[in-house]
Amino acid sequence: MFIDPDDGQPYLPTPAFFLAGIDIYDREETLGEELEKLDPNDPTDREKIIVKYCLPTRKTYRHKFLIYKCLKEALQDETYDFQSLLAYDPEAFSSFPDGWDEMENTRAFFEDIFRLATVVWKNDLQKASLEDQSTW
Question: Which of 33, 46, 66, 72 has its CA 20 to 30 A from that of 8?
Fold first, then answer.
């Protein structure tokens, strides 16, 4: 099991990781206004959102590999509820742009994340895949 060097705890990612870059909580006037100009239902805008906001991370290549792998597993599960990841929770310190909780096809959004991560993170994913993950 991979132990996160940042906190010393087992690293157990979920597909929600990819939403951190579009969380506008306490950034409504900056990031929120930027994202309001983009439509996550439009494939061209969706690609811009993913490349600019969902994929950039300071995480290591090992983190990326595990995040990618967890998304792949979620996409293979036909019953995985991607919509619930965008659901508004008044108790949480996070929020998404208006209307994003009603995205037409959240599975397509995450399928595009997976497709683009395959390209953008290619070198990191390859590096991690060549290692023995049981030694992490």
Answer: 72
